[in-house]
Amino acid sequence: MTDEEKDQRGRPGLPRLALGALSGALAGFAALAAAELVAAGVRPQSAPVVVVGGASIDATPAAVKDWAIRHFGTDDKLVLQLGILAVLTVSALALGVLAVRFRRLGAAGTLLFGAVGAMAALDRPDSAGPTDSLPSVAGAVAGALLLYALAGRLTAPARSTARQTGSVSEEAAGGPPASEAWDRRGFVLAAASAATASAVAGAAGRSLNGSSGRDAATSREKVVLPLPGSPARPVPKRAGLRVEGISPFVTPNQDFYRVDTALVVPKVDASGWRMRIHGKGVRRPATYSFVDLLRRELIERDITLTCVSNEVGGPYVGNARWIGVRLADLLAECGVKPPSRGGRADQLVARSVDGMTIGSPVEDLMDGRDAMLALGMNGEPLPFEHGFPVRMVVPGLYGFVSACKWIEDIELTTFDSYDPYWVKRGWARRAPIRTESRIDTPKPFARPRTGTVMVAGVAWAQHRGIDKVEVRIDDGPWREAHLAAEYTRDTWRQWSIPWQATTGGHTLTVRATDRTGTVQTDRRTRTIPDGAGGWHSVVVTVD
Predict the structure, then answer these.
(1) Model pTM above 0.85
(2) Is residue 273 a contact partner of residue 381, using CB atoms and an 8 Å limit?
(3) I need a labelling partner for 95 at 20 to 30 A (CA). Which of 155, 168, 196, 319 fits?
(4) At what angle do helices 14-42 and 48-59 cross, to 10 degrees?
(5) Cβ distance 299 to 373 under 8 Å?
(6) Confidence of residue 173 (pLDDT cuts 50, 70, 90)
């Protein structure tokens, strides 16, 4: 026999390599299922995909995050999770192929992935300690053991009656060589058993993880929001224009934008929720329960929120009716003073249950604006996606410096001594919302007919108010649009203008002027570090 023939006989054939890849996939599935089951006993946020996904978000450059939000919107987290699963799948397939020839090396590779997950779990801002690493470790061990066992079935010789009775071997009789005589029956049984057990474990883990949020859901269902001591005045009819395609004055909860870093929406039980106020200049630290806040005088206000990741003309802006506790009152009770009155702290750092930190200027929070700890949104308790049980709402500031959801801690400090999450990643420390406007109708690349076409949209400059909106057709003169009635300076304003459309392509452009006289800039800027700038334009073709 030649050396080449010996080498070929020592290599696994393509069928076994394919089955090796299948073994890797089954081992990966078993690892995730076991991790899911163990996470149910620890906490859902400790699952490997969640902790690795969170670590990936934290390590992603701000520009890339901004690109993901711009292109995938609120589906950015789903895309990230699918990407992680795709990488894990390809890696599992490769490890399975490797294990056909090198069983221990393939199993060791699986354990390496578990180590990565464990380190990510321990490094998370909301880590509960060493127990958070257990799901990744348990999953890796389960996956490694299964891969080692299945690879063994692919290399172990099949036991046949012929061999046991001393008959001529398959190879001598012209059958497959010894290197290809593996335990087919044993492999099929082991693979089927592993797949079934993994499916059961995964389903059980998912069910148990879901049940952990049922108590939170029950606590939300039991919440009855009291009548506010300071109710919002009715919205005048003239605040809403009857133009088809324009954004409604109040954004329904299900349509309100959501931009955050939480791969798993925290489900917090209101009955066990607590929030602490402490830090520099806090003479009387205090801890509040959800019931404590409900028993206080509540305010009700319509406030428009805007995400700093909102591109010019983008969708990440919405208006809702919020009900909550005035934040300045709580701070004053704790002995906090703004810097203008001798206060020692100029930054309030809000911490979420998922470890997010958001810094807000103390001066802005205590200057008389309706900054609040919100408990309700549009007449109901906060939805989980929007921060139940309690979140911050501050008119006039972008969300990344004000809108902490699932809040559980407030620390008073200084901008010089602490950088919150987004500041560490290149965003500004202070970020008042820019004066902006948007064309809602007609949509980009629409094909309206000649004649009168209503051009309409919204404009916002929270805590300053909108004074004027102007529209330009192509390179023509600016024409002042009709403004809906102003509700408050903290809400957006609808606007409209009739346009006598003529055949051909046209560019429609809008700009706004706020009540300080500041005109919306035409200079295009990125969202980083403190919000996008520029005029919004749409191109249409008139038939």
Answers:
(1) no
(2) no
(3) 196
(4) 90
(5) no
(6) very low
- Radius of gyration over alpha carbons of the chain, in Å? 30
As a whole number, the mean pLDDT across the chain is 90
Residue from 363, 397, 387 nearest 490 by CA: 397
Neighbours of 443 (CB within 10 A): 11
One-letter amino acid for residue 57 of the chain: I
The tens digit of pLDDT for each residue in 340-369 reads: 999 999 999 999 999 999 999 999 999 999
* Structure-block tokens of residue 408: 């559980």
- The β-bridge relationship of strands 347-352 and 357-361 is antiparallel
Contact indicator for 492, 464 with CB cutoff of 8 Å = no
Amino acid at 391: R
Cis, bond preceding 442 (omega within 30 deg of 0) = yes
Q: Which two tokens stand for residue 354?
A: 């998922």
Residues in a beta bridge with 324: 299, 374
Cα 393 to Cα 60, 224, 258, 327: the distances in Å are 27, 20, 14, 9
User: Mind listing the pLDDT tens digit for each residue in 296-310?
Assistant: 999 999 999 999 999
Tell me if residue 531 falls in helix, strand or coil.
coil
In the three-class reduction of DSSP (H, G, I as helix; E, B as strand; rest coil), residue 79 is classed as helix
Cα separation of the two ends of the chain: 81
Of 439, 356, 308, 298, the C-alpha closest to 125 is 356
